[in-house]
From TrEMBL:
Signal peptide coordinates: none
UniProt-listed PROSITE patterns: VOC (PS51819)
Chain coiled-coil ranges: none
Protein name: VOC domain-containing protein
Record-annotated VOC domain positions: 9-134
InterPro entries in the cross-refs: Glyas_Bleomycin-R_OHBP_Dase (IPR029068), Glyas_Fos-R_dOase_dom (IPR004360), VOC_core (IPR037523)
One Pfam assignment: Glyoxalase
Domain of life: Bacteria
Amino acid sequence: MSPEIVVPRFTVVTLGVSEMRRSIAFYASLGFARKFRATGEAVAFFDTGGTVLALYPWDALAQDAGLPDAPRPQAFRGVTLAWNCRSEAEVDAALAAAVEKGATLLKAAQPTDYGGYCGYFADPDGHVWEAVVAPGIEVGDDGRVRLPE
């Protein structure tokens, strides 16, 4: 029997959260569509238009990964999530909506050195999101990102 060929794919990003109910409400309020609700509050899945955003209790996720759940990092964690937008106005609107729903504005939107426009917010558990419009990266009418070859 020959070894199976492994095809790399990015399918789900799971965020460890402190309060499932609060985080579910936050991401639903941003407009992400919750799917597979049969899981209740044990785990929550949101359709993001290409991948899945999952929420799982912080301590249980750490335990599942075989890592300690404390101390929880207060500094930059080395990861950002991106919300690619079609225009500067959409970046501003995304940041405003996130803050209105309970996010913390980390950096107001401004022009970037690569010709884009972006700002940053943190969700209620400190997960960092970038709202960005970037030259050469197209966001289709379906909300999916298309990269040039």
